[in-house]
Amino acid sequence: MTRRWIHTCAGNEVFRMRINLALVLMAFFGVSHLQAQGWPSYGGDPGSSKYSLLNQITKDNVDDLEIAWSYRTGEGEGPTLRAGHFGLQVTPILLPDEAGGALVICSAFHRVIALDPATGRVRWEFDPEIERGRRGIQYKCRGVAQWHDERAAEGTACSWRVLTNTIDQRLIALDARTGQPCARFGDAGTVLLTPYIDASLPATDTPGVQTYMPPAIVGDTVILGSSVGSKFRRVEAPSGAVRAFDARTGEFKWSFDPVPRNPDDPEANSWTSKALAITGGANVWSLMSVDEERDLVFLPTSSASPNYYGGTRPGDNRYANSTVALRGSTGELIWHFQIVHHDVWDWDMASQPMAIDVERDGKINPVVVQLTKHGLVFVFDRETGKPFFPVEERPVPTDGVPNDILSPTQPFPTAPPPLAPLSLSPDDAWGFTFYDKNACRRIIENLRHGEVFTPPTTQGTAIMPGMVNNYGAGAFDPERNFLITNPQRFPLFIRLIPNDEVDPDLAKAPMAGLPGGPPGFIDGTPYAIERGAPQVFSPFGSPCTKPPWYTLTAIDLTNGEIRWAVPLGVIDKLAPLPVPIKLGAPGMGGPIVTAAGLIFIGATADERFRAFDIDTGKELWVTDMPTSAMATPITYEVDGRQFVVVAAGGHHAYYRQKVSDYLIAFALPEK
Questions:
Q1: pLDDT tens sequence across 496-530
Q2: How many Å apart are CA 667 and CA 328, to the nearest integer?
Q3: Residue 603 backbone zone (phi > 0: left; psi -120 to 50: alpha; other: beta)
Q4: How far is 517 from 403, CA to CA, in rounded Å?
Q5: Active site residues
Q6: Which of 634, 657, 660, 658 is closest to 649 using CA atoms?
Q7: pTM for this entry
């Protein structure tokens, strides 16, 4: 396989030598788990490089791609779906041949479905029968994981397992070949997570604690994060503890609470005793990554409760808003780095940390890359947490609302450069015409604005940047040292409103406190919160800042320089007039990279799927989709044919598309 691949890609002797070197380095430094023909975990490999060695689809023939097969989960679309359904946003995994070789997905309602990877036909299905129609529940599942029991005889039941966690607080182990629950795991295949969640401080009303991202697996340990949806509504939210279970038996192994309630924790003294007693959240709602060889799991933690107001939790609030490295088998803290001190902007670490190997000056450096909502890129030594590029603490604004003491400094990496503008002024107002440009100028003038980390106020604050990177994160090409990512570049709005100025009836509305909804109370504080994007959009519905509003960007991690950035998406599905202008069509999801020098990405609100040239950023291929592909694609090879597969399910909350249930596979025409 490797020899054929080199001959196919070779353009000259130097290129062949670089490819050989890349393969040797990957094998030696722990990337050998990247199966040349498969996609065994959410990020392609446990470190989430999202890189494939496949090269059958090239820059020269990518324009010949066609739909090889499609599959629908049967959960409908548009108004037929209940409120709270986010559509199909799954990233599939491909089981190895010895585990049955199926392509495995989970639906928005957590059905686990195994498909033939060559045809899309259903091989088996498991339905956990979650209750539908619950208010406040986000019905979504973004992936499953697999685990091999090396103690079990090959071919026995559950020697290979699919592990899935559900929004109703269950961890389920299924036989990878049949989809039957593993009888010796938990109670007939299921571990109820509720007792472990309810036992956590500070709040025990925990139905809103959900698990919809795939678990991380290190050795025989299954590690789960969670979404704590109530943390923006109140101070005393449920704990955001990360919990680990035995992959063989389902027995509880350890937990790590990013709010350090243990008085022996070295960071406990940076919190007040009252804050430790009442603060929840700081949870890991996004994806974790692992370094199996070093027995490490990397957590991207979120903000502590409540979002947007920190008067009840003075101090930096460590380990919230951090990248945290734990020993996978025991939960022991190895290192941590806080990226946002005392968060009042909802700048969670939403992106999966990427455990990759960067070549610099002839040396291979194992690092962890953390992309952020505020557009800064942090790179850490994987073993120590020391910044790979220097990080400086710089002064930032601190004049927020009374009784909320903000951090006087925040960390800024000296490289790479920010992925979006870090300030906003009326002079930045942009419009298609003088009319909407002047309207945008007035909008910015009437809001608090300024440099990054300008805090929320009762006046209302235009936050710039708004939400640059989310769960799609990035992809890494080890041959070029290129990090590929898709940053958004537009402002958001936050306003804290004194409670006595809020309509109490509107504050009970389902959308209260959510983006675009009326103000909602933050229980336990003097304020309600109003937030969203429309408040900083023009009368024509476009962002009030200069495009592109969304880009595909290549960063050279050798020196931290941006090599290229191109607009990602056209605005015909977003603008009043259906004009396909390349100004960027923001969305969620991420890219993948192949050894043939191709980038595949959906993640746009314009309902298209694309391929780009990694060397130049040139768009090489684009196709229309049934709705937006708000997920990360995968690629694999079956019977000598390379497939690229992506879920097209839309996103009902932010991007105004219908939600749906398509999984679509592309391939070159069969000869």
A1: 999 999 999 999 887 888 888 899 999 999 999 99
A2: 37
A3: left
A4: 26
A5: 346
A6: 660
A7: 0.93
